[in-house]
Amino acid sequence: MKVSARNLLKGKVKKIVFGAVNAEVTIEIAPGVEVTSIITKSSAENLGIKEGSDAYALIKASDVMVAID
After folding, report:
1. Does 2.40.50.100 match the CATH number of domain 7-59?
2. Which of 7, 11, 44, 68 is deepest in the core (most CB within 10 A)?
3. What is the pLDDT of residues 25-66, one digit of tens each?
4. What one-character-per-residue DSSP string does the chain give?
């Protein structure tokens, strides 16, 4: 797989919640560290992803904000 995204995080699919149109996919990239993405339901079905399967979170953003409390 070759992609232009700079941030590629490998993990395991922890949870998938299917809605009428979208699917919420949670990938655990390290113990206790999760990334959640909303993708179309048809994309999730086409990928054939299942809980426990390996997956990548690809993050491509033109802006990254930093905040402090």
Report:
1. yes
2. 44
3. 999 999 999 999 999 999 999 999 999 999 999 987 777 778
4. ---S-SEEEEEEEEEEEE-SSEEEEEEEEETTEEEEEEEEHHHHHHHT--TT-EEEEEE--S-------
